[in-house]
Amino acid sequence: MRMVNLRVPYSARRGALFLAVILAVGFLLLPGQLQSVFQEVGGPLGWIISWPFQAVAGIHDRIAGIWGRYVALQEVEEENQQLRRELDLLKEQNGQLREASVATERLSALLEFKKQVLPTSVAAQVIGRDTGNWYKTIILNKGASDGLQSDQGVITPAGVVGRVVKTTASTAVVLLVTDPNNAIAGLIQRTRDEGIVEGTTQGQARLKYIPLLSNARPGDHVVTSGLVEGFPRGLPIGTIMRIDKEEEALFQSAEISPEVDPNRVEEVLVIRSPSIPSEGERLGVPKPKP
Amino acid sequence: MKALIYLVVIVGLVPIQSVFLPHISLWGVKPDLGLVAVCLIGLIAGELDGLLMGLALGWAMSLFSAQDLISAVVLKGAVGFVAGLAGRQVVYLSPVVLVAGLLVVSCLAGLVTPFVLTLSVQQDWWWALRTVVLPQACLDALIGGLIYSIMWSRWNIEQLMSESRM
What we know:
The complex is a heterodimer of chains A (290) and B (166). Helix content of chain A is 36%, strand content 26%. In chain A, helix 4 (74-102) packs across helix 5. Chain A has 290 residues and is an alpha+beta fold. Classes of the chains: A alpha+beta (290), B mainly alpha (166).
């Protein structure tokens, strides 16, 4: 009786290996724009993985819950959470009051703006962190099917968390404000000087390109300037800890302590508003007649 | 059967890497389970399996990371391919040889990564070496050694290697 050989012959295996190597090398030669095509093609794969992802995140939350409630001290945990909520609320109120002392018109415009923006924001839960070590990101349990897309701003009541850089159907990757590859347009609340907020390798942030004549000082609050897509003006980013002024430099820079601790973020809001109204529109400036 | 195992590895490994591994990070650096898995598959099942699994895992992991698709896919694929080639040259694969190999492969992959990614100017080569590459290589080697020791105690690795490579 003849046995049927189901194994792949060696020559066929070599052929397959050759094709696979060509495929891998071909990937290197692909233009950057085609990456988005593969990102789209990877959508179903991302959707499949998102199911065990959410299941693992659920198990993780359950373990964390049991640990928090029964292993750690129950009362301290609850009190801590309560205080954190209050602190977040107070930080938000504090930021708004400071803004009011600078310009009351801006506050009214901001409140009007918030009314417009908040209904279009999406609440999402943090279910994971970056799969690699090169970027500081968080993974959200909402994705493209919930209207999330790249460059949308991510906030908590305390302040800015980061911005969406990638989405699958049911998850989104958020690059944190503390990542050195992130850049958000910022504004010193007291002096109204603008700059760019970048993350640092130490897990803090830095406001760059502050004019030399600015009298910014430690303790000043930095908020979003609204010049970059995704964030409205006036959202808290952080507090200036130190001003760095180098000789013969064209600008100053400042070290910022972010308002939001990215390692403790559990729920966030994604600003889904497609278009942010201009300052004039918010203040009700009449449009010129055609 | 093999394809099913590979699918389970891809679908199961990505959430574990993203949800649980941050809790066992060392100086803020977590091991790369994908790299360890691709190395082991390359060593045991050969360069074709290592390469294809590297491409697939790189793709799946890039969906849940800010890292771009091409660098993730090509790096993981290359690691799987090299591991497969190395597996052909090794007559007796002991856990010590594996740990040393993983340490070297992880270091090499880690050193190439900052050049492939367009990282911020703050994240220079020296920063990458001392804060990401070396801690991650140590953790990868440790985890890989542990997994291999468990496999060693349960299965005949040489037989598994020869069967998988036929």
